[in-house]
Task: structure prediction
Amino acid sequence: MASQRPDGTGALDTDTTSALSSVPVPPRSSELYAALDLGTNSCRMLIAQPKGSGFHVVDSFSKSVQLGAGLERTGRLSRGSMARTIQALRICQQKLRRNKVRRMRLVATEACRRAINGEEFMLRIQRETGLRLDIINPEEEAGLAVISCAPLVSRKTENLLVVDIGGGSTELVWIDISKVPKQERAASIMRLHAGFDQSITEMPAARVVDWISVPLGVATLRDQFNDVEDDAARFALMSWFFEENLSSFKPYQSAQPQEHFQIVGTSGTVTTVAASHLGLRRYDRTKVDGLHMSSEEIDKVIHSYLAMGPQGRRDDPRIGQDRSTLIMSGAAILQALMRCWPTNRLSVADRGLREGLLYAQMSADGVLDESGH
Result:
């Protein structure tokens, strides 16, 4: 199924009761674009300007709203979590208006997909903030994560696994680029923004061998094992439980060649583990994005987290208070993946859904220098 994308991108209206939605405007390289990702745990937005084969970020927003709090138990978005989210979205709306952004894609993911009142909440957001959000399906979410990571793919890579560990779900996409000329491999992955079926293209295409959206992310996996008191036992149970959910993923069922194989991991978990590996006291994106880590190096960091215990993780500045309650469920997912596909080349991506949304919009509008990939 092809990725779904509405016509146009976004319109600003002086009337805040009308939706900020789409209006056709001729593409100009000076046009600002926005991408908003409302996830299970966080609300994040980027506003950027096309620049060469990429973009320059002019404004951003990130806030932990814990939208999925209690969802596992009740099947609904709670009153408190919706109120927190509305507050965050009002700030986003102000930034969009201040920057006069007309071209935008605003999306919600797993929490809103699963909640009984997810669609109802979308209407409330539109009514109270003037923002129109789309609840995207798992395939589009996976595809957006993939194209955001394309610049990190090595020319030597022939088989690629892109992993996006979210708050409510984890997306895995296995891509075979062995038939694509080396200099075209990143560009072939960028073309997946049009959908995973590339059989109709005349150019050498990236082939999606299989993809899966596991309905377990850092928040939902943690919530499932909250009743296990022992820290190490809870971690082990989470890791093996996550692996059990990979059984329908084709690459899990058959041994894959490890030569010319690369994993790209995008999530707060992966970047936090990378920061801990580097011993950073203050997070530095320039040192983390694109870093390569081996299975052994990741294992060493995870064992250090277990040795710290819950209080030690709360006190560790590389983890931080907000992430301390989520890092072990994320680490459990990461360890399961390393157990299945050990590698010396896990590439850390400090990028994800928002960057994918920006690339997709700009590429569709023809304002990117595609030769740069």
About this structure: Residues 1-27 have pLDDT under 50 and may be disordered. The first helix runs from residue 71 to 74. The first strand starts at residue 33 and ends at 38.
